[in-house]
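Is this the right way to post structure tokens for a design question? Let me know if I should format differently. Anyway, here goes:
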């Protein structure tokens, strides 16, 4: 999924923060210019948050759709095998029915034994007849069981296919919702002057700085552990992606969204993690924010809709938002929910030199 519509307009919001050249301003919409800087910043952040949440929904639906497609294929194969087995059971039952019909005038095993000239031979025949009776009963049981299984598998296959179609529709709705929210951002940003955006960016930096000090007791942690070997690799990979564009649903190598960058960085380090920020927050071991080490994943917003890779020194590397690029931001650039550690059992390195990083901005607008 790619949010490319209005990329030039979205660049208005990130140009000051990321150091890009300003595009030519357009006539401002009265509503946006009439708002206070604080109200406009809050509205833009809310719109970005909603757009990113819709993007996460789209990505999660894609993951579930892939799993459901595999289940549909598995059930289809199972149904074909079950029907083949059922056809064989029906053939066997038919042969038994024909054999029984053709031999219906035969004497019973007891009368055969009574009138037999060779009772020992007759006993052998009786054993054979009993074995055939058991085989007949087993064939009928297989036939009945096969019919029940075929019905059950056919029902499961229909339900799986219905679920797949529902996921396709849900994914389309998530995509449309995200695009609609981005259009709202574009409308809010389309005519803002560089001076107006500079005021918004300054307010965001001030709020981020205050949040950073409240979170860490200062702008940076007093001290922190070194990363594990894999954590260091994940950080190195994320840093190599600085400047690459945000694209919802993307996990490299050309573009990333936030959870795609986090998942790809840890995969590059040899430790796969869940694809979405919600699953990362739900399934990975949690760590206190005051015990962060490079490589930890910092999750944002109460709904866990954004994630960043902690790079050390109170900074994170992340794909901040549509229209921006992978950047370095202060840890508290967005409302922090908590942190998780993919390699919770791995010891820290004895020595570690963090990469040289410069903040790319607040990361919210």
């Amino acid at each position: 999924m790619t949010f490319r519509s209005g990329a030039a307009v979205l660049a208005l919001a990130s140009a000051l923060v990321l150091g890009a050249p300003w595009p030519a301003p357009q006539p401002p919409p009265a509503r946006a210019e009439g708002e206070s800087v604080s109200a406009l910043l809050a509205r833009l952040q809310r719109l970005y948050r909603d757009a990113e949440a819709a993007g996460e929904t789209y990505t999660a639906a894609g993951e579930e759709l892939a799993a459901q497609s595999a289940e549909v294929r598995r059930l289809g194969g199972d149904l074909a095998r079950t029907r083949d087995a059922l056809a064989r059971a029906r053939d066997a039952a038919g042969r038994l029915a024909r054999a029984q019909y053709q031999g219906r005038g035969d004497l019973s095993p007891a009368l055969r034994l009574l009138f037999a000239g060779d009772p020992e031979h007759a006993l052998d025949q009786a054993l054979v007849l009993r074995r055939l009776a058991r085989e007949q009963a087993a064939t009928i049981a297989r036939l009945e069981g096969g019919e029940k299984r075929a019905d059950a598998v056919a029902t499961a296959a229909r339900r799986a296919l219905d679920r797949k179609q529902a996921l396709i529709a849900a994914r389309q709705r998530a995509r449309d919702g995200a695009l609609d929210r981005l259009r709202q951002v574009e409308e809010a940003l389309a005519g803002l002057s560089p001076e107006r955006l500079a005021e918004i960016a300054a307010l965001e930096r001030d709020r981020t700085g205050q949040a950073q000090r409240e979170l860490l007791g200062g702008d940076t942690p007093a001290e922190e552990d070194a990363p594990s070997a894999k954590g260091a690799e994940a950080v190195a990979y994320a840093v190599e992606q600085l400047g690459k564009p945000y694209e919802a649903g993307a996990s490299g190598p050309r573009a990333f969204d936030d959870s795609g960058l986090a998942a790809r960085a840890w995969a590059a380090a040899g430790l796969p993690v869940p694809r979405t920020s919600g699953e990362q927050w739900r399934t990975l071991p949690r760590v206190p924010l005051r015990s962060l080490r490079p490589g930890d994943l910092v999750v944002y917003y109460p709904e866990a809709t954004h994630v960043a890779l902690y790079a050390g020194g109170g900074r994170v590397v992340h794909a901040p938002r549509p229209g921006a690029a992978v950047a370095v931001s202060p840890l508290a650039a967005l409302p922090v929910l908590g942190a998780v550690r993919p390699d919770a059992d791995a010891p820290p390195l004895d020595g570690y030199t963090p990469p040289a990083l410069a903040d790319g901005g607040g990361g919210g607008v």
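Format looks fine. Someone answered above. Worth noting: Confidence is low (pLDDT under 50) at residues 1-33, 104-108, 110-117, 361-365. The beta strands are 286-287, 297-300, 306-312, 315-318, 327-330, 336-340.
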